[in-house]
Here is the input.
Amino acid sequence: MGRKIVIVTDAWTPQINGVVVTLLNTKRELENRGYEVHVINSEYFTTFPLWFYPEIQIAEPVQSALLFSKLMQYIKPDILHIATEGTLGMIARSWCKKNDFPFTTAYHTKFPEYIKNLIGLPEELTYAYLRWFHGASSNVFVTTPAMKDELASYDIHNTVVWSRGVNTDIFNTSHIKPTGVPYILYVGRVSAEKNLQAFLDLDVPYGKKVVGDGPQLPWLKKEYPRVDWLGARTQMELPPLYANASCFVFPSITDTFGLVMIESISCGTPVAAFDTEINRGILSPEVAALSDNLESAVYKAARLKDTNVEICAQWVKDNYSWAAATDKFIANLVTKNN
Here is the structure.
């Protein structure tokens, strides 16, 4: 297999989200194995804010397509992977089709449900776009077997499982220290698609801490003044927050994975989440409590924290390493010579 890889993504630093974390760690693993990795992201292009999500900058399509073609002529990649379905993803897809260059894609986010939550666009329209976008891909990388089945029900095929990992040198139980008031924790975007109010409305005897930024933050801070709103935090600031929580709460029902759950478990803190097929495929009973009643899940997860700290840490080491995830990534790439 060729050694020069281009990864195209509309999501990149300084954004803080699961896609960016995944790509940063995958890039590091690939480079450690001798691959030359070029991440083509919006910093190369003229951008404009996404109208319904102004914090996200997307590439202007016409001039960006010309520049993208020049970048490909300069880099001369052996492998091209499209990580997102935004304007850069469309530009890369078009270039690949025009130049008969095979490519792979990834499905990181349940965009149909996500966009419906944000602007009310019917899901069937977005799924039609996704069928077109991913239909020309040699392999569509998804997070779990359950996600494979879900996309197949929408006639999106050629899917392969690419799981996720955690850097256990950073996320581990060494950060556990005696704390004051017990609290439960949420880490992620403060936006409608994350179903954050299910966490904020919990009637439980714990303080609540929220780490993250997003369009709903100003409004929710006013509505829930007793919540400890911590804003965005760096990767190095997260482990103590994870490690000393009574449990981590993951209220989303539209995420395809939820990497923050695995980071928390790696720090010894179990997860409370809704009982969805996706969550069942990622988590196991010794490290998480899944229920249709999130309050019940919180109590169960907090009890697990009393007994299963080391079990949690070992479970992550056994199941979610970036090395193993990158093995899967490499195995399902395609080269222009295939």
Observations:
- The domain at 4-165+322-331 is CATH 3.40.50.2000 (Rossmann fold).
